[in-house]
């Protein structure tokens, strides 16, 4: 048996229009929100990366200085 459709062509068009409006508005909003998040998070990430790199360099310099001091002690002794 054929059952009548609950919704017609007008409601399909209305639904499609509502969906398109939501998609357009959300993309703009999401893009703006994403950019704000990037602007807030990037300095934190870069700060951590730079701090980590500085610590590695500092440790490397300290190891080299300790090595040089050991060589000097051997030469002087």
TrEMBL record:
Stored InterPro entries: Kinase-like_dom_sf
Protein name, per record: Protein kinase domain-containing protein
Domain of life, source organism: Eukaryota
């Amino acid at each position: 048996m054929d059952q009548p459709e609950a919704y017609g062509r007008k409601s399909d068009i209305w639904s499609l229009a509502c969906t398109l409006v939501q998609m357009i508005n959300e993309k703009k909003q999401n893009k703006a929100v994403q950019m704000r998040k990037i602007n807030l998070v990037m300095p934190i990430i870069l700060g951590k990366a730079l701090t980590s790199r500085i610590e590695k360099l500092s440790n490397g310099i300290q190891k080299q200085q300790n090595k040089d001091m050991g060589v000097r002690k051997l030469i002087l002794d």
